[in-house]
């Protein structure tokens, strides 16, 4: 097993007033040639949007865009006619494919919204754009690595994307131990600690740290405190 650690404090940061964003990989004004992507994982942004503010209508194409809110309510509207609010516990995917326009806005005027914006390269270009959104209970994630994103056409659960990628969310009690077995040979995993402290494959990680794991079929996870963890298995 090979690993690369990205400590929380090493991420790119941009504060635009209405938007406070941390970038694990190169994005917008932050460019690190050693951190452009991790295999098919292109963007992992940790975003906070001020009350009543948001991203105006803008285009995307040939990208799988996943949003995972952790606090507050995010209103999504797109050129396919979708108008939805995504909340804590929801996972949303937008397959941009041949091209789509969308906007994202903080639904509330009295509290910020916090969410992770994640981009994954698709395995096929110029597909028909599509939208999917699902809610996952806290109980389903308790001491469990719950699949919330899986490849289109599989029966593995969660929202589906045009890539051989699986995302899992877990809310782990202190001292809980488990292991993760990769779904596809040759894939790699990017682990991101949402909250708390964990040890993965012997590597101690803290809040908002990221760990890239390659050349492994399976690895161990131990929660050193109560913790919340996101695993992103992608082709490399």
Distance between the termini: 14 Å
Structural class: mainly beta
User: How many H/I helices?
Assistant: 1
CATH architecture: Sandwich
Low confidence ranges: none
How many strands appear in the DSSP assignment?
Answer: 22
In short:
Helix content is 2%, strand content 56%.
General description of the model:
With about 240 residues, the chain is mostly beta strands. The chain has a single domain, classed as Jelly Rolls, CATH 2.60.120.10. Helices cover about 0% and strands about 55% of the residues. It is built from one helix and 22 strands. It has one helix at about 140, and strands at about 1-5, 10-15, 20-25, 40-50, 55-60, 65-70, 75-80, 85, 90-95, 100-105, 115-120, 130-135, 145-150, 160, 165-170, 175-180, 185-195, 200, 205, 210-215, 220-225, 225-235. A seven-stranded mixed β-sheet has the order 1-20-17-22-15-13-14. Strands 2-3-4-11-6-9-12 form a seven-stranded antiparallel β-sheet, with no helix packed on it. A hairpin with a 2-residue loop joins strand 18 (about 200) and strand 19. The two termini are about 15 Å apart.
Task: For this entry, give a set of tags.
1 helix, 22 strands, seven-stranded mixed sheet, 236 residues, 2% helix, mainly beta, seven-stranded antiparallel sheet, Jelly Rolls
């Amino acid at each position: 097993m090979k690993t690369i650690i990205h400590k929380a404090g090493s991420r790119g940061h941009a504060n635009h007033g209405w938007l406070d964003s941390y970038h694990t990989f190169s994005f917008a004004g932050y460019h690190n040639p050693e951190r452009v992507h991790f295999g098919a994982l292109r963007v992992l942004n940790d975003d906070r949007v001020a009350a009543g503010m948001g991203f105006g209508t803008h285009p995307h194409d040939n990208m799988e865009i996943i949003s995972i809110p952790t606090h507050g309510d995010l209103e999504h509207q797109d050129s396919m006619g979708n108008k939805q609010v995504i909340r804590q516990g929801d996972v949303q995917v937008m397959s941009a494919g041949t091209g789509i326009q969308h906007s994202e806005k903080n639904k509330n005027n009295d509290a910020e919204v916090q969410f992770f914006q994640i981009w994954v390269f698709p395995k096929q270009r110029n597909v028909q754009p599509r939208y999917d959104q699902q809610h996952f209970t806290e109980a389903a994630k308790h001491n469990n690595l719950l699949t919330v994103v899986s490849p289109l056409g599989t029966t593995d659960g969660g929202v589906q994307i045009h890539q051989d990628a699986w995302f899992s969310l877990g809310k782990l009690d202190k001292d809980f131990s488990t292991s993760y077995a990769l779904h596809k040979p040759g894939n790699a995993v990017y682990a991101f600690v949402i909250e708390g402290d964990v040890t993965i494959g012997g590597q101690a990680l803290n809040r908002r740290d990221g760990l890239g794991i390659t050349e492994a079929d399976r690895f161990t996870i131990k929660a050193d405190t109560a913790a919340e963890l996101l695993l992103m298995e992608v082709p490399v």
